[in-house]
From TrEMBL:
Protein name as catalogued: DNA replication and repair protein RecF
Taxonomy of the source species: Bacteria, Bacillati, Bacillota, Erysipelotrichia, Erysipelotrichales
Family statement drawn from the similarity comment of this UniProt entry: Belongs to the RecF family.
Gene3D superfamilies cross-referenced by the UniProt entry: P-loop containing nucleotide triphosphate hydrolases, RecF/RecN/SMC, N-terminal domain
Keyword DNA damage: yes
Recorded name of the encoding gene: recF
Subcellular location: Cytoplasm
């Protein structure tokens, strides 16, 4: 998948700007801080996810003193060229494909498939389990339609069960019936999550050796309230609900289930959060993102677009070169950096751009600070 053209209108610090990009090439966006490099990545990410990775407030994406923004792109998917446009005004989003309105966001999300690495992602390992579930769900939703519909049905059932637990006189039969339906959906979700994580572990381990002189191995464990290899997952889940029913009635909340699950990362046999250095966490995260791109390519026949925001800080020259070497050759990549990089670091065609005050020019220009 390749973005051929991108156009911003009143998006962040871009009043009106058009960009052209090359297929399957690394694009390095160089420039001083606060010039608009990350805003370009944010625009591409927005096309992919219909939300920003930096803010939940859509209004802050509109250029100051303006009322609306739009992002347009021409994206090449396999042999097809998609013409997409997003127009956002007053929290209202309008989506267009080839100029015709797209009524459902779910039919728009994923036409552009972008994977992002940004410095905040490093919190994945130390933040709450919900962030790790979000990481897993976000990717599974893009990979499987069954996962999307099953997850949304499970979430509805969970909401209904919690409402039933909150009732003045909780209806035990209703709670039990909802539990039976939840267990059915949870089994499908657990199986898909566990197999996704095992594939991700395999792919990340293919990439990891490129980054380090010593052999490193990563294990990714799905932590759920029941044994994932248990013969009858549904029964095991029902037992878990039954065991916790007294507590659930007291707290008026469903305390066990896949909405509480977590992922454990183990590097060289030790819990990653307890022993890994910042550099190791960064390389594991990069291996996960590249592993993810490989899974997407295997499932869909095309690589996603890779957005690497400020990826080089804290990486020594060896690791920088290793990162570039590990990027699949036919993947379109965007890298932002405020440090000047030698073209010798790159083992494949690369285009350098300088971003200054919301203007992007080809080449590297030294700007007086
Ligand atoms: N809604 C907005 N309207 C106008 N300008 C904005 C808006 N939001 C952010 N900006 C401006 O965009 C610039 C920040 O852009 P961006 O985050 O892309 O920086 P960057 O070049 O990636 O810098 P760094 O290297 O520090 O990450 C700042 O000058 C900021 O004031």
């Amino acid at each position: 998948m390749n973005i051929q053209k991108l156009k911003f209108s009143h998006f962040r610090n871009y009043d009106s700007a058009s960009f052209s990009f090359e297929p399957a090439m690394i694009h390095v966006l160089f420039g001083r801080n606060a010039q608009g490099k990350t805003n370009i990545l944010e625009g591409i990410y927005y096309l992919s996810h219909l939300r920003s990775f930096r803010t939940l407030k859509t209004g802050s994406l509109i250029e100051h003193d303006e009322q609306a923004f739009s992002i347009e792109c021409l994206v090449e998917r396999k042999t097809r060229l998609e013409d997409l446009r997003i127009y956002v005004e007053d929290h209202k989003k309008r989506l267009f494909r080839y100029g015709s309105p797209v009524p459902a966001a779910s039919s728009f999300v994923g036409i552009v498939n972008a994977i992002l690495f940004c410095p905040d992602d490093l919190n994945l390992f130390s933040s709450s389990p919900s962030k790790r579930r979000q990481f897993m769900d976000m990717e599974l939703v893009k990979l499987s339609r069954t996962y999307t519909s099953t997850l949304s049905h499970y979430q509805k059932l969970l909401k209904d069960r919690n409402a039933a637990l909150k009732a003045f006189h909780p209806d035990s039969l209703l709670i039990e019936t909802l539990g039976v339906q939840m267990a059915k959906e949870a089994r499908i979700l657990i199986e898909q999550r566990a197999s996704f994580l095992s594939l991700l572990e395999e792919k990340a381990n293919e990439v990891l050796p490129v980054f380090s002189e010593s052999a490193e191995t990563l294990q990714i464990r799905y932590k759920t309230s029941v044994e994932t290899d248990s013969e009858n997952l549904e029964e095991a889940l029902l037992e878990a609900y039954e065991k916790s029913i007294k507590k659930d009635k007291q707290t008026k909340n469903t305390s066990v289930g896949i909405h509480r699950d977590d992922i454990e990362f183990i590097l060289n046999g030790k819990l990653l959060t307890q022993t890994a250095s910042q550099g190791q966490k960064r390389t594991v995260l990069l291996a996960l993102k590249i592993g993810l791109a490989k899974i997407i390519e295997e499932k869909s026949g095309q690589y996603p677009i890779m957005l690497l925001d400020d990826v080089f800080s804290e990486l020594d020259n060896l690791r920088k070169a290793a990162l570039i070497a590990s990027l699949p050759k036919n993947m379109q990549v965007f890298i932002t950096t405020s440090e000047e990089l030698s073209p010798a670091l790159f083992n494949r065609p690369v285009k350098f751009y300088t971003v200054e005050n919301a203007k992007m020019k080809e080449g590297i220009y030294h700007v007086e600070s």
